[in-house]
Amino acid sequence: MSPDALEDKQLDADADHVTARGDLLVAEGIHSYGSDLTMEIEVREDGFELPDGEITVVFEDRPSSKGRVVKEQSSPRGPHPRGTRVRLMVRLADGEGWPDQALTLEWTAKSKNDSVQVVRLIVIPPKFRAGG
C-alpha cells in the first residue's frame, strides 16, 4: 500500500502510538536491526491473535518475501482483549534488511465464525513515527 493510500485511511499519529480508523490494522515499527523488525500493535477487537510461524511481507519497491515470527521476542500469541498493546518481531527469511517505508504483513487466521481470513497489517517504520 502506498503512503498516499495510507493517508486516505485517515491515520492518527502522535508521539506514543499510531492507530487507524475503519478496518485498517496498523502497527508501529519500534526497532529495526538487520533482518529483524519489532513492532507494536494496539488490539482493536477482542480475541485478536498474533501470527505464528511464516507470514508474507509485501513491499512497495521489491518482490514480496517471507518472514518468520520470532516467538521469543514477541508477545504471547493470544487471544488478546481490545485495547491491549502487543509486540511482534518478524525476521525476514531472505536475510535482507527492512526498508524505510510502509509495508504490509499478511497471514491467515480463523475469524470468530471459524472461517479462514487473510489478516493485513500495515507497518509504519520507526523512521516515520511522529515524534520519532
Annotation keywords:
single chain, 132 residues, mainly beta, 7-stranded mixed β-barrel, two-stranded antiparallel ribbon, 5% helix, disordered N terminus
**Gyration radius over CA:** 14 Å
Which stretches are poorly predicted, pLDDT < 50 over at least 5 residues?
A: 1-22
Coarse structural class: mainly beta
Order of helices and strands: HEEEEEEEEE
What's the helix and strand layout?
Elements: H1 3-8, E1 12-13, E2 18-19, E3 25-33, E4 36-42, E5 54-58, E6 65-69, E7 85-92, E8 103-110, E9 116-124
Parallel strand pairs: 3-9
Antiparallel strand pairs: 1-2, 3-4, 4-7, 5-6, 5-8, 6-7, 8-9
What features would you describe in this structure?
- This protein has 1 helix and 9 strands.
- The chain has 132 residues and is mainly beta.
- The longest helix has 6 residues, at 3-8.
- Strands 3-4-7-6-5-8-9 form a 7-stranded mixed β-barrel. The protein has a two-stranded antiparallel ribbon with strand order 1-2.
- A hairpin with a 5-residue loop joins strand 8 and strand 9 (116-124).
